[in-house]
Amino acid sequence: MSIRSLRGSAALLLCLGLTATPALAEEEPVSLGTITLTATGLPVEVLKSPASVSVIDGSAIRNTAPVSVAKLISDVPGLQVSGNGIDRIAIRGEGASRVAVLIDGQKLTDHTNYGQPLLIDPGSIERIEVVRGSSSVISGSQAIGGVVNIITKKGAARPFELTTQAGYMSATDGYRLSATASGTVEAGEGALDYRLTLGRMSQDDRKSADGVVSPSDTSDRTASAHLGYRSGQHYFGLKLLSYDLSANVFADNPDFLIQMPKRDMRRVGVFYEGENLTPWLRKLSFDAYRQTVDRSFRNDITMYPAGIMHLHVESTSEDEQLTFGANLRAEMQFSENSRTYVGIEFTDDSLTTDKYSRTTVRFRGAPFPISDVTTLRYDEATIRTTSVFTQHEISLNDALTATFGARWYHVEASHDVATTNGVARAATGNRDDQGLVSAGLVWYPDESLALRANISQGYIYPSLSQLFLNTTAGGTAIAGNPDLDPERATTFEIGARYDAGGALIDATLFHTRAKDYIASVQTDPMTRARQYMNLEEAKSWGLELHAEYALPELGLTPYIAATALRREITYANGFSTRDSGMPDLSGRVGLRKSWSLGAAEGEFDFFLRAASGTVMRGADGLVAARDANALKTNRSAGFGTLNLHTTAQFDNGIAVVLELNNLTDRSYEGWDYMPGEERSVNLFLTKTF
């Protein structure tokens, strides 16, 4: 940790500590009694949920430095976070393209080949619900690995409240700032609640124990708003979100450049919620939204085949995505021992892309190329998805509950406009009808223990890029395939939860089998051209564990959050390997200590975060190179870092989060091969007026 870092942290602490107002009451800590909706659509305690679900509530969010949304959920068992350029997550070994990301229950859609990033400022988040395992019956397409549902804040309880937050991250000489104005006022016979949040983040290249990781800088700007009106049993609202992001991706190769100068999202949504409208209609909700995403992408790579050639590929892409979506859901209760949840969901995604690529080949050292090819592509494509679903819960007796769910999908995709170098290509299309089911059983002999079993299915319809577009990535041309089938998966789980006497345990054994994986396959060894095909299958099984035990007389809580994962990939040629690129063991083990001093109180958290090494083998059984120049292969060593985090709340409305990371200044790589941060500090201060 540099002197510059310490001075910056001290200056920030001093500046924000100069003001004072009365403190707000702190929320209760997270427990298995937290109510969740994401897993089943029905309000149910986490303890009694048939699915594997974790809830990061407001208290947990306040006690974590909000560097990014991904950091808030990074220690949930079963999750892996990729922080290279744009934060994306994997769940149970399934990458970001196989994880559904929702904001207030509305799905974010992404038709790139990398998966949906987390595009929202942490300062606007009330809580996050994470479902691990296939969950497409309730949460829709993309949910093979799981679901991340981000619930945003509404208005504060009093007429006006102002919250400001500032943070410093020494590993990137970065900062994050946000300000939120919110409140609730009487309006006629009802109440009007509002919130407006503005945020800004900037981080320079990451510093690791081995030096500067360049390029790896990123920045974002965000503005979000909520306006709601409640009158009796009815609640109407409007939500707005503007999020601008730019990033450079570290490739560990000076001849390989990946830039994302723009990934801007605009989202406007309206919603209605009605409660207890009839004796049997407990809740009725409707929402509709319009979303645009503007993306810019640049890839520049130089390769030296056989050591005598010089191959240079430059490609750019300008994408515009427009999405309309609507959801109608109802919770009904026709008898004392049953509840039913039904819904219909519609999304319309249209994508316009303008792509450029230039490939030059020359003998190494020669002044003129022997080949120079420029390609211009323009495409317009559309995908429309309609689905209906239901979930039925029935209490078989006082201690046994069963749930059954089903969903039907109808999807149509069309390639409306396609030109290459100004010459039109033939239009194509794809469609699918698919049914999915789920079932769960929960036995809770008392209010502190629940045993559960669950089976659920996942479904992913191919993206527009995979179906129709021709792209250039890493110096390789990849063609779409309009004949692709959807990916599907089935997850089996058994689990146990216990919450009593200071002990909390949540353990899950799971097995997932996914098939019809979409992957690019080389079709021409001379040009290295590839095409998307349904080829791979994957089997995953493992154990997820969160356990802690509070010792109130000492103010100590030892805990562990860990995952044991084995994943087997079977390629099209029949070759199977368990070297899937995911760590077999990962997690966090630590000791929390509560403290109080005068009017201040808080918590120390000393912990080890660790993961085993990873190896990724290709269809040929070899450990593949990370890039075309084969400077490094797809291997990473295991690691463990010691960390000390502390929080403090004062009675003048100030809250502090201080994180000391990688105390031993360990050199390591994550599972995404991104070098880890050096010994560093994150300091965030929040002031509520």
Provide a compact summary of the structure.
5% of the residues lie in helices and 62% in strands. The protein has 689 residues and is mostly beta strands.
Layout of helices and strands:
Layout: H1 3-16, E1 35-36, E2 44-45, E3 52-56, H2 58-62, H3 69-73, E4 79-82, E5 88-91, E6 99-103, E7 106-107, E8 125-132, H4 136-139, E9 146-152, E10 161-169, E11 174-187, E12 190-203, E13 206-208, E14 211-213, E15 218-231, E16 234-249, E17 256-275, E18 281-303, E19 309-335, E20 338-363, E21 371-397, E22 400-420, E23 423-424, E24 429-446, E25 449-460, H5 464-468, E26 471-473, E27 476-479, E28 487-500, E29 503-524, E30 529-549, E31 556-570, E32 576-577, E33 585-597, E34 600-611, E35 614-615, E36 635-636, E37 639-649, E38 654-661, E39 680-688
Parallel strand pairs: 6-9, 27-30
Antiparallel strand pairs: 1-2, 3-8, 4-5, 6-7, 8-9, 10-11, 10-39, 11-12, 12-15, 13-14, 15-16, 16-17, 17-18, 18-19, 19-20, 20-21, 21-22, 22-23, 22-24, 24-25, 25-28, 26-27, 28-29, 29-30, 30-31, 31-32, 31-33, 33-34, 34-37, 35-36, 37-38, 38-39
List keywords for this structure.
5-stranded mixed β-sheet, disordered N terminus, 689 residues, mainly beta, Maltoporin, Chain A, 22-stranded antiparallel β-barrel
